[in-house]
Amino acid sequence: MNARRRFDPAQLAEQMLAQTKRLGATSADLLFAEAESMGVRVRMGSIERLESAQEQRLGLRCFIGRRSASTSTSDLSPDSIRELVERTCSLAKVTAEDPAAGLPDSSELTTSIPDLDLYDDAAAQLTAEDRIGLAKRAEGAALAVDPRLTNSEGADCDYGGAEVWYASSGGFIGSYRGTRTSLSVSPVASQNGQMQRDYWYTSGRHLRQLISPDEVGRIAAERTLRRLGARPVKTQQAPVIFDPETASQLLGTIVSAVSGYSLYRRASFLVDQLTKPVAAPIVTVEDDGTIPREVGSKPFDGEGLPTRKKKVIDGGVLKSYLLDCYTARKLNLKPTGNATRGVGDPPGVAPTNLRLVPGESAPEAIIRSIPNGLYVTELIGFGINLATGDYSQGAAGVWIDKGELTFPVEEVTIAGNLRDMLMQIEAIGNDLPPHRGVASPTIKIGRMTIAGT
Amino acid sequence: MFDELMPSSQQPITFFDERFGLDRAMLERAIGRALGGAIDYADLYAEYRVNESISLEEGIVKQASHAVSQGAGLRALSGDKTGFAYTDEISLDRLTLAARQARAIAQRQEETDATGLLRKGRDGGHDLYALRQLPTEATLEGKLELLNTIDRIARAYDPRITSVITSIASEDRLVVVASSDGWVAGDRRPLVRLNVTCIAEEGGRREIGSYGGGGRLEFGWLLEEERFARYAREAARQAILNLSAKEAPAGTMTVVLGPGWPGILLHEAIGHGLEADFNRKGVSAFTGKIGQRVASELCTIVDDGTIPNRRGSLNIDDEGTPTSRTVLIEQGILKGYLQDRLNAKLMGMAPTGNGRRQSFAHPPMPRMTNTFMLAGESDPDEIIRSVKSGLYAVSFGGGQVDITNGKFVFSASEAYLIEDGKVTAPVKGATLIGNGPDVLTRVSMVGSDLKLDEGVGVCGKDGQSVPVGVGLPTIRVDGLTVGGTSV
After folding, report:
1. Does A411 map to a domain?
2. Which residue, among B460, B458, B402, B457, has the nearest Cα to B434 in the 3D structure?
3. Quick check: B60 and A97 CB within 8 A?
4. Same structural domain, A197 and A235
5. What residues form DSSP beta bridges with B200?
6. Domain check: are A173 and A84 in the same one?
7. Same structural domain for residues A200 and A348?
8. Dihedral angle sign, alpha carbons of residues B111, B115, B117, B120
9. Are residues A362 and A438 in the same domain?
10. Are A181 and A238 in a shared domain?
11. Residues of B in contact with A70 (CB under 8 A)
């Protein structure tokens, strides 16, 4: 990955931090990222797109007292880097004193950087032909399942590898590298003039974490065929089961609501709820950035703090927010090792590997427990108001009648309030999908409004 | 930095030559490396972009940021196959490597030379946003002062406004496209956007209101006619209004959409489904429907990339094709698709100037520019009076569509009940869902009040975001599913 690097990032960091000091900065941190990527798309059995790239980007944040500014560039010439440092320092002078701004306390920094085995040589060394082969097999497997699968939006096999350095005037310097490969396919089925599309995918840091292309194709085909003949149902209130895909999206919404930035701005329905019950007692949510070989793992966060394992919700009680240093200071709490950084952006907050802890029930048993209701397999739209918890999304899935999956449903919305939805989680499946970052098993919510005809 | 008199089509060509030595000979060598054999087209897209952003919250300017991005994407086409590679270093070595990677799509080994290829400029480009001062060149002091003024206006609107977040984002993008058809084209694209978000609190209830505007305009435009003050008051008004909003209804009902931003309906229901790539592949719910009725005869819908200073407008698209005004639906009949170069060629149709890309690191594909419905003849008040019971929605958040089955959603952020022809109680935001090829057949009235949005739209497709515009007159839709909670 470093074939074109003409400098030592550690040395560059040291020089830049020294330069910021000369220009009046009281502290500074910088991020340097090098990435390579390759993507292939196969459609109807032949290659449609082949993409590849190498990139590098440098970002700098300077503090003058409690004032700060961030800059970034992909132009790494010495002139450009000098310009970057000067610009950052002068930009910082125009911003206001923010009492909560600043680098982390040195005592909080990661002291030994663990090797989390996030880089897979096998994934990095796969050739374009190999990737085309995987995509062809996945698409071929999908289209072979049923003659109603007549078309395809294609199969993609994407690879990304990156190495990241973080250094701060607080005395931290560290780097890590990682790979990620994904394989996905979107077949299209038609029947009686109606067309439906669905998809399936697999991904992981190591190639061996991926399920087989045949399996990806088969699941994509089944999900697509299941949607043929879909129609709306009557407007009503009924139980709703989210499959692991849609349940993970719902969990992602909860993540935004426990992010320090939503909380100190009071733009979250979970404001002031720490230590209080916010979900049904069967709900436990964990975040753990230290699991080897996992998508969301990293040896230190975007401010050099160690990542860690913590319970966000324990037995329905809200135990921890997700915080970086800034939001921790704003809320008078301790940072949780969840700082994330885009190169050139100030820190934000992100989950690492966040999961709703699975329960005992098989998903089939949860479906059988419902006299009638909706099994949701796809959500579309942006109808979520984090401040109020109001939730209204477009949905597609399968209608449950007397505990059995019956006909496919589309063109309906499901609505409720996240507060009530969390409290009404009545069952949690045992089917937590692996290697997903933010992941949930099947869940059942006691009652939501379904709007249709 | 630039000669004021140099046209915006020439400025980027001169800039890349002076800064990176990217002259005609280097462009020809890079394109030459991608051409030959089964490759029937190659192009190079070079980009230099400056993004500046400052934001204010809790009454102080906490952050200022500045980012420079540069790079070039090389593309080689062979039939319906695309080879694409990009580099963030603009040098002959890196461009040559990218060209080799791009042409691997045709498994071609030999190297060619395209000396003398680039003989001309590109004809027909527009000049829609020549500015006296770029928004990135306006002083930071002026921007800081404006942020502080907006904060005061929003807080003064109502004591229940507890939090105000305001940001100004400015962009300067220089683009050069060189094509194996033998031409070089340039475009300099300024963009400015002001956003205001207010949070109101009362008795433990919290609500949000957001508003903003912008375009390919000078920073000073935000100050003209006190536009910034209107944005600030609108954001505050929405947040306060929502404090008293009641549960939204659930079910299928008559919906009146207000003018302007509700045009997102067209973007989701019609626009994406008419992008040529989906239709060439036969995966759009609109596939094969050209010449058929897909809307009531009151509906004429266009996509127009040539409106001066609009956020969705471009002088040339990202493949160098001059933008145009494309009629998508004329009096209810489906007329055309939004084309990029690849799909137009494969479908035997003309490019429409809709080949767009997020950046040099993304390959182009068919995208919308400014999509809107032409004005009709009804008086907007009369439209509301005509509804016995229904929903009046005037402001929206985001939307999404499933291209293949045609189902689309868009989420109201300001809506009211209509009872006996009168707008009554505000209701909470709710998602509206419908079927693209069918929803506009139920448009029974079209107002005379066509309005374009304020200039804040962002459209996402296949992981790429581009700025777009929408527009709509007041319309009445007889039967749209509203996803509230109140049954």
Report:
1. yes
2. B402
3. yes
4. no
5. B161, B207
6. yes
7. no
8. positive
9. yes
10. no
11. 63-66
Q: Of A224, A250, A278, which closes a domain? A: A224
Same domain flag for A143 and A45: yes
Selected residue of A265, A377, A414 to mutate for chain B interface (largest B Cβ count, 10 A): A265
Instruction: Report how far residue B472's alpha carbon sits from residue B474's, in angstroms, rounded to the nearest whole number.
Output: 6
Q: Distance from B7 to chain A by nearest Cα, in Å?
A: 26
The helix-helix angle for A78-94 and A9-22 (nearest 10°) equals 40
User: In the predicted model, what is the mean pLDDT of residues A192-207?
Assistant: 96
A349 assigned to some structural domain: yes
Which of these, B197, B229, B227, B225, lies nearest to B214 by C-alpha position? B227
The predicted pLDDT at position B6 comes to: 73
Phi/psi at B456 (nearest 5 deg)? -130, 5
Q: Report the pLDDT value the prediction gives residue B3, as an integer from 0 to 100.
A: 44
pLDDT classification of A62: cutoffs 50, 70, 90:
very high
CB B246 within 8 Å of CB B312: no
Q: How far is A280 from chain B (nearest CA, A)?
A: 21
Residue segments in chain B with a per-residue pLDDT below the cut of 70: 1-5, 108-111
Evaluate whether residue A145 is within a structural domain: yes
Paired with A143 in beta bridges are none
Cα gap A391→B42, rounded to integer Å: 47
**pLDDT, position B124:** 81
CB atoms < 10 A from the CB of B432, how many?
Answer: 33
Question: For strand A372-380 and strand B389-401, is the pairing parallel, antiparallel, or unpaired?
Answer: unpaired
- Say if residues B165 and B142 touch (Cβ distance below 8 Å): no
Q: How many domains does chain A have?
A: 2
Final residue belonging to a domain, choices A171, A201, A224: A224
Q: What mean pLDDT comes out for the span A244-248?
A: 98
Among A52, A344, A415, the residue with its CB nearest the CB of B483 is A415
pLDDT digits (tens, 9 = 90+) for A300-337: 999 999 999 999 999 999 999 999 999 999 999 999 99
> Which residues of chain B make contact with A236, given a CB cutoff of 8 A?
487
Closest CB to A387: pick one of B208, B363, B397. Answer: B208
Structural contact between residues B56 and B167, judged by C-beta atoms closer than 8 angstroms: yes
CB contacts under 8 A, B 230-249 vs A, are: 248
In terms of Cβ atoms closer than 10 Å to its own Cβ (0-12, 13-18, 19+), residue A259 is: buried
Residue A221's φ and ψ, nearest 5 degrees, are -65, -45
Q: Does A447 touch chain B (CB under 8 A)?
A: no
Q: Give the mean model confidence (pLDDT) for residues A401-413.
A: 97
Whether the per-residue pLDDT at A3 is higher than 60: the answer is no
Task: Decide if A339 is inside a domain.
Answer: yes
Query: What's the pLDDT score for residue B116?
Result: 80
Residue A148 shares a structural domain with residue A199: yes
CB of B403 within 8 Å of a chain A CB? The answer is yes
Domains of chain B: 11-243 (3.30.2290.10), 250-483 (no CATH)
Cβ neighbours of residue A409 closer than 8 Å, sequence gap 6 or more: A230, A231, A232, A233, A374, A395, A396, A397, A398, A399, A452
Instruction: Return the closest-CA partner of residue A223 out of A205, A206, A201.
Output: A201
Instruction: Count residue pairs from A and B with Cβ separation < 8 A.
Output: 254
pLDDT above 70 for A150? yes
Print the domain residue range for A449. Answer: 230-453
Question: Same domain for A111 and A256?
Answer: no
DSSP B270: I
Question: Which of A4, A54, A95 is nearest residue B61 as measured by Cβ atoms?
Answer: A95
Say which CATH number the domain at A178 has: 3.30.2290.10
pTM (predicted TM-score): 0.95
Q: From the list A227, A230, A381, which residue is nearest B399 (CB)?
A: A381
Q: What is the mean pLDDT of residues A37-64?
A: 94
Write down the residue that tokens 């080879």 correspond to.
B83
